[in-house]
Amino acid sequence: MKPMPNRKQACLVLFTIVCCCMPMVLSAGQEKTAPGRHHGLWNEYPAAEVERGKIQFQKTCAFCHGPDANGATGPNLMRSAVVRHDVKGDQIGPVIRNGFPDKGMPAFQLSSEQVMDIVAFLRYRLDVSDRRSAGQAGANYSAAKLLVGNAQAGKAFFDGAGKCSTCHSPTGDLKGIANKFPATELQARFLYPRGQRPTATVTDASGEEYTGQIRLLTPYDIAIVDGAGWYRSWPIHTVKVKIDDRLAAHRQLLFKFTDTEMHNIFAYLETLK
User: Fold this and answer.
1) Alpha-carbon torsion 80, 161, 41, 177, what sign?
2) Which DSSP string corresponds to 65-110?
3) From the CA atom positions of the chain, what is the Rg in Å?
4) What percent of the residues of the chain are helix, what percent strand, and what percent coil, each to the nearest 5?
5) What gap in Å lies between CA 208 and CA 216, rounded to an integer?
6) What is the CATH number of domain 47-134?
7) Could you report the per-residue pLDDT of 193-250, keeping only the tens digit for each?
8) Residue 141: what pLDDT?
9) What CATH code is assigned to 199-245?
10) Which of 37, 51, 106, 217 could form a disulfide with 90 if both were Cys (CB 3.0 to 4.6 A apart)?
């Protein structure tokens, strides 16, 4: 029979095991929580940009909005129309720079890069928040719970006041759309469509033109990434800008939709099987 180790030996063995396993545990935790590229709408923001934005957000915004932007003494930014409707910093940027003094939010004089990092962090947080919220609904969350609108009224809006039929067709790009996506996802997609990102053609003082995807657009700056992958930025008052945003009509409708119209449109889309 082998002698039992004394207490000192047992503690030493336990300490050695913990030291050996801890790096693997920490590594696994980091892989699970570290932000990276996603397959959603905002996957153009790399992990490094999101991480810088998180650090900047902690310094300037977390006191009021919480470390994860879920709200503290200030509002929950995951429910903010400014954050949800932002396109490359066009709405978040002015709020950061101008603030809301009458509501107790000061203006922050940050560089364009710092603002864009915060935008990246907030869009990452929104993506995570939406995916978690969608997952909570579960299999029991049926289309019947969403189908409270009138499909015929939705069709009339689609062909009429909404002007949806000028770009979309129930026998073309929308054919069978209700079979392609679950009800919850279809509703989200028609309200917040994915894919085509706005581009801009920027003409500088010398007459040189540059075209690319918009990375930052505020009352002060514009930045694009051109076809060769170069990041280019200008003070907006020094250049001429022509924007091509094929989803602009969708974004404008978000501010015009009534609840009834949204439900009616969704009910109509659910008939396109």
Assistant:
1) positive
2) H-TTSS-SSS--GGG-HHHHH-STTTTHHHHHHH-BGGGTBPP---
3) 24
4) 50, 10, 35
5) 20
6) 1.10.760.10
7) 766 778 999 999 999 999 998 888 888 889 898 888 899 999 999 999 999 888 878 8
8) 54
9) 2.30.30
10) 217
Q: How confident is the model at residue 174 (pLDDT cuts 50, 70, 90)?
A: very high
Sequence-ordered list of residues with C-beta below 8 angstroms from that of 53, at least 6 positions apart, any chain: 116, 117, 118, 119, 120, 121, 122, 124
What are the DSSP calls for 140-166, one per residue? T--GGGT--S-HHHHHHHHHTTT-GGG
Spatial distance between the Cα atoms of 125 and 254, rounded to a whole number of angstroms: 21
The kind and range of the H/E element at 192 are: none
Domain ranges of the chain: 47-134, 149-193+250-269, 199-245
- The pTM assigned to this predicted structure is 0.46
**Contact status, residue 14 vs residue 20, Cβ threshold 8 Å:** no
Q: How many angstroms separate the CA atoms of 23 and 21, rounded?
A: 6
For helices 112-137 and 183-191, give the axis angle rounded to 10 degrees: 150
- Residue 214, token pair as written in the block: 């918009």
Q: State whether residue 234 is helix, strand or coil.
A: strand
25/18 Cα distance (integer angstroms): 10
- Position 194 scores a pLDDT of 67
The pairing of strands 209-217 and 199-203 is: antiparallel
Burial label for 166, CB within 10 Å (0-12, 13-18, 19+), is: exposed
